[in-house]
UniProtKB/TrEMBL annotation:
Organism: Aphanomyces astaci
Domain annotation Protein kinase: ranges: 31-203
Record-level Gene Ontology MF annotations: ATP binding; protein serine/threonine kinase activity
Keyword list, A-Z: ATP-binding, Kinase, Nucleotide-binding, Serine/threonine-protein kinase, Transferase
Name of the molecule in the record: Cyclin-dependent kinase 2 homolog
Length: 203
């Protein structure tokens, strides 16, 4: 009696397949740390130089929180490095250095670029939840770049799951957050843009 041949074992995913799914993985030793430029709840950011291309980048060391549990294998190395384009200034620091409020045309340009970024996030069902001056960066061409997605969440309209109202600096919070709502929509991001407008014109 003929036996059915065994199916060949599935090959592990190729490097190309992993790169397509997660982006190119490189050794962190290929980057030279120049100086630390920021630190927060989820990690530390360094200004770094790509030793291969010579490009200046932002290198973020993300700390993964590892909860130990009996019977569950523990994660030993909880460090992951992410490479971002480097932006010289954030809006808060820039306003502090120029010692003058933005002109009306400058504020309009900042808000227009910020709202375009927010519109894109909302189109893919992401709420940023932490819009403020220090999370709005300027690249070398003076373009606005939205950063720091540590509090961002995927959501529907309205949010299908409960979320904490304790997000963003207190003075930026939308009314529903101040009232302790645990279910809210992407409209809270739109609310944040007005305090940002007021700060850029008042400083």
């Amino acid at each position: 009696m003929a036996t059915k041949p065994k199916a060949p074992a599935a090959a592990p995913p190729s490097t190309a397949a992993l790169d397509t799914a997660f982006g190119t993985c490189r050794n962190v030793d290929e980057f030279e740390k120049l100086n630390r430029i920021g630190e927060g709840t989820y990690g530390t950011v360094y200004r770094a130089r790509d030793k291969v291309s010579g490009e200046i980048v932002a290198l973020k060391r993300v700390i993964l929180h590892n909860e130990k549990q009996d019977g569950v294998r523990s994660l030993i190395d909880t460090s992951v490095f992410l490479v971002f384009e480097y932006c010289e200034h954030d809006l808060s620091a820039l306003l502090s250095n120029v010692h003058r409020p933005f002109t009306e045309s400058e504020v309009k340009r900042v808000l227009m670029e910020l709202l375009r970024a927010v519109e894109y996030l909302h189109a893919i069902n992401i709420i940023h939840r932490d819009l403020k001056l220090s999370n709005i960066l300027y690249d070398g061409f003076g373009r606005v770049k939205l950063a720091d997605f540590g509090l961002a969440r995927e959501t529907g309209f309205p949010s299908p799951t409960s979320m904490t109202p304790k997000v963003v600096t207190l003075w930026y919070r939308a009314p529903e957050l101040l009232l302790g709502a645990e279910s809210y929509s992407s409209s809270i991001d739109i609310w944040y843009t007005d305090p940002i407008r007021q700060e850029t014109m008042a400083m």
